[in-house]
Amino acid sequence: DYLDTEAAMRADDEPPRPAGLPLDAPRLLAALEERLAELACEESLPPTTRALRADLMQACRAAGEATGPLWTLTAPTGSGKTLALLLFALTRAVRQPAARPIRRIVVVLPFLSLLDQTAEEYRRIVAAAGLDPACLLEHHSLAGTHAAHSDSAARQLTENWDAPLILTTSVQLLESLHAHTPGACRKLHRLAQSIILLDEV
Questions:
Q1: Which of 17, 23, 68, 100 is 20 to 30 Å from 150 at the Cα level?
Q2: Residues 52, 107, 30, 134: is their CA dihedral positive or negative?
Q3: For 119-130, what is the mean pLDDT?
């Protein structure tokens, strides 16, 4: 394995590869619930939209509490799917037995414009939870342009998707699943014990 080889070849004075942070689902869920409560009080929302969003959130909470390996969500634009998906995943992660915890949540989007909007909203939730910004890892073709991902530690975490909350593109996920080169396949073991959310599939 690359990581075993890297550890064996590392010089004594060289710092070890940074370890990814664990998923703190209860804190993230509490911060998300606060954000949802704020959004529910927005005066600019029409009552029908507010009711639709409330129904969607309740359905995602219920799905997160239920069992089953595969779920689908169909909802119109503007109904709050971005946060509803995270609500489902965090609810599922919180109720997961401690013997087999959910290690990460992988959010997969087809377009960079959607990914940027989602990242902005998720960053707000991570900050509200008081967690390290490194909890959220973006992996897409423009990720290197962000200051947070320009250092070598972030690049090392990206190589293995070693973070509790990952935002990536459909291309990155599919290339990781179907690649025939070892470098691209390094992320596969991180998908075990993960919740994978395919948005706008």
A1: 23
A2: negative
A3: 95
Contact 197, 132 (CB under 8 A): no
Do residues 110 and 169 make contact, with C-beta atoms less than 8 angstroms apart? Answer: yes
CB 113 within 8 A of CB 121: no
- To the nearest 10 degrees (0 to 180), the angle between helices 81-95 and 112-128 is 50
Q: Is the pLDDT of residue 151 over 50?
A: yes
- pLDDT for res 147: 41
Closest CA to 25 of 91, 118, 78, 123: 91
The sheet that has 104-109: what strands, in order across it?
136-139, 165-169, 104-109, 194-198
Amino acid at 19: A
Q: What are 72-80's contacts with CB under 8 Å, separation 24+?
A: 76/52, 78/49, 79/49, 79/52, 79/53, 80/39, 80/53, 80/56
Provide the 3-class DSSP secondary structure of residue 181: coil
Listed residue (87, 104, 10, 11) closest to 53, CA to CA:
87
Q: Is 169 within 8 Å of 109 (Cβ atoms)? A: yes
